[in-house]
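Structure in, sequence out. Go:
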């Protein structure tokens, strides 16, 4: 299973989303990116100083469709990626409660963060995963996603089961 994430912040700066077992930066992992042309990568967060924040080895760089872009017209930076939820020797993202970290830099180059915080998400069981609404256009490009409206959150599997049930009742 995978999870797709999008982080939008004002200004042109580096951004990061981290994965933590204890809500702390130290001994956590993160996806960090800068809009200076490099592709976002996974990092090990071994400590609070910059030397302890190191890219994971090449074989661990398994992000899918990772990008970070600055949109001048909207004055926002957008970090997007899809990540495998359970990877060997990495913090697992699982159904239920997960603790994430967020950080944004002062400038584009990876350095000290201007702002940081933790947040929790309770992810549904894989059988209950819902589809997202179509992307919305921003600055002429499809970049942002909105959750489904009430009643539109059925998964493809649930829709199929309901359709099959309706067909059986008609027969």
């Amino acid at each position: 299973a995978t999870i797709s994430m999008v982080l939008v912040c004002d200004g042109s700066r580096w951004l990061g989303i981290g994965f933590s077992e204890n809500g702390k930066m130290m001994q956590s992992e993160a996806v960090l990116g800068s809009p200076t042309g490099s592709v976002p990568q996974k990092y090990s967060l071994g400590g609070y100083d910059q030397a302890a924040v190191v890219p994971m080895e090449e074989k661990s760089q398994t992000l899918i469709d990772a990008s970070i872009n600055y949109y001048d017209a909207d004055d926002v930076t957008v970090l997007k990626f899809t990540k495998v939820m359970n990877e060997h020797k990495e913090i697992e993202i699982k159904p239920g409660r997960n603790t994430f970290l967020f950080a944004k830099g002062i400038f584009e180059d990876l350095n000290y963060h201007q702002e940081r915080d933790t947040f929790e998400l309770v992810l549904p069981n894989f059988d209950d995963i819902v589809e997202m609404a179509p992307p919305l256009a921003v600055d002429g490009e499809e970049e942002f996603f909105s959750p489904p409206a009430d009643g539109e959150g059925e998964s493809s599997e649930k829709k199929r089961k309901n359709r099959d049930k309706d067909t059986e009742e008609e027969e």
